[in-house]
Amino acid sequence: MSDGESAISGPPGYPKIILFGDSLTERSFESVNNGFGKVLTAYYAGWADGFPGQFRYNSTWLRNFFMGIIGTLESMNSCPPLFITVFLGANDACLPPTSAHVPLPEFEANLRYYVDTILSHPMTKGTKVILITPPPIEVHPFRSETADNPSVQESLIRSVKTGRGYQTYMSKKLYAEKVMGIAKSYQEQTDLVAGLDFWTALVNFGHENGKRSESGPSEIDDEILPGSGLPGATSFGRAVLVDGLHLGPLGYKVLSRELLALITEKWPELQKEALPLQTQSLEDDCQTHGASAEVRKVDER
């Protein structure tokens, strides 16, 4: 069995929902996280079934795998997927010499390859595409009992900004901005593509709900990004970023809320109430572009 076949095999006859990405997508199906994989499966219950998938690390490693998905859709004579999420960049944005790093121009080329293929291939005709930005990370803040002292704070800021943690944080921001720029460029041409700015959604959540370090400055500066490690920055906490990198249940809750709202508001035809139940024939389902769906994740371990 090829990678593509194992990724989206399962009962034929209904269009798929494909979740394509790295370990953040993989973990979204774990019960302990109740991530967007679990949430979409629950939302489309009676219309959708969730299954495990294959895993890859970054946008470049996944390229060799992507056409296997298309090939399996062909071999199954499947209807086009209802939508495909592309959730990449968290590993690509890691700084070199980390093996996961993918330079920004190559990252953009990879994402455009995925979107162009989905939009142009007969097996994915009419399929919606959601590009999801990578989230921020949690950089552990410097501890200082004199952080309110302006000269000490200035020194701390310089020290943090030259550190690898902060530079990685800002790299993730840069890749998130690139994802939204790519999505916008397609949105000017078609209604089939949307961008989900998960970076900003989680940063806003951190501003509103994050924890401030007791040893930090007494005043919170909203211009200082949550999790950045700068003096005065709030922290996300383990419920949002369980290890500083991977999403915890609360982080996934923010993502699931934003994703489901985007899907159902931008494309009302994808609201579950608008989809036929699993009693219709494949021919009828393909004609209506609204059949029950098999939710698949294609991601990285």
SSE blueprint and pairings:
Layout: H1 3-8, E1 16-21, H2 23-26, H3 36-43, E2 48-51, H4 59-75, E3 83-87, H5 104-120, E4 128-132, H6 150-161, H7 164-187, E5 193-196, H8 198-209, E6 211-212, E7 234-235, H9 249-266, H10 282-288, E8 293-298
Parallel strand pairs: 1-3, 1-8, 2-8, 3-4, 4-5
Antiparallel strand pairs: 6-7
Features:
10 helices; alpha/beta; six-stranded parallel β-sheet; 301 residues; two-stranded antiparallel sheet; disordered N terminus; globular; 42% helix; 8 strands
Written description of the protein model:
The model is unreliable at 1-10, 49-54, 215-220 and 288-292 (pLDDT under 50). The chain is globular and about 65 Å long. Strands 2-8-1-3-4-5 form a six-stranded parallel β-sheet, sandwiched between helices. The chain has a two-stranded antiparallel sheet with strand order 6-7. It has helices at residues 3-8, 23-26, 36-43, 59-75, 104-120, 150-161, 164-187, 198-209, 249-266, 282-288; strands at residues 16-21, 48-51, 83-87, 128-132, 193-196, 211-212, 234-235, 293-298. Helix content is 42%, strand content 11%. The chain is an alpha/beta fold and 301 residues long.
